[in-house]
Amino acid sequence: MSEQYADLHLHTRHSDGDASVEELLAEVAKTDLAAIAITDHDSFEGIDIAHALNTRSDLKIISGVELSTAYKGKDVHMLGYFFDHHYPEFVEYCQRFRDEREQRAVKMVQKLNDLGAKIAVDRVYEIADGGAIGRPHVAQTMVEAGFVKNLQSAFDKYISNDGPAYVPKYKIDPVAAIDLIHRAGGVAVMAHPGIVRDDSIVAHLAKNGLDGLEVHHPNHMLMRCEEFYAGLADKYGLLHTGGSDWHGARKPDIWIGKAKVSMERVQKLEEAASRYQQV
Ligand code: AMP
Ligand code: ZN
Ligand code: FE
Ligand code: FE
Description:
binds adenosine monophosphate, 44% helix
């Protein structure tokens, strides 16, 4: 049998992707992936829906999440896998994050209004449709209102990290995120280190419980640094993961399976998680 692969980084409309879980599964069906993880920002809502909709015994659906953390002023995204997505502390934590995102949207809209881009926060909420609200929803509201021609120019002109209407997200320390994922019985993986570009953070987190590094990611393919991060993961004894960071049509140059990881690696992740599940 040829080698099997998993895409462990997918977003749905339960955060800032624009596809429903049903649409995601329809896209997955066009691939030969053996496993997927839905890793919405601060939300587990897609996971149970995916389990309920999945009719294929040959497709493994792994619980996943992507948490926003910050270390030394840098954004660090922490992926969690194989945790119990009904673990109460973790569920409450995600709810708190989503509430904070709502407040942040109010502040960003206020700044945009002050800058002359009159959009309504209620429209942002409508577009987010109950999912964890992010900047892509604000950007889409701006496109719809005619203030910018596309999502990218909303970022470039207003809401990129150094833009005039940017408001930082509520974030926790990455080690606190790692500990929380472990308590819920999962493994913690630092997302796209090639975007963070500070390998001292990888070293720090590896000493503090990090289990894996997202070696395979479309940005790493572009920057030709997958081999570098594979080497860094090995240096610190971290497991390798990978995924496309698919957001549906919101990121049109990304397709499911664009970046992926072998099922052998997934097996190692699952074994590592089982060690946190023994209480
Ligand atoms: P948030 O979680 O609300 O901070 O939004 C993060 C999302 O915005 C991610 O999906 C990013 O892909 C997208 N994003 C952040 N910065 C930019 C940028 N400069 N250009 C385009 N998209 C961006
Ligand atoms: Zn996202
Ligand atoms: Fe990310
Ligand atoms: Fe992501």
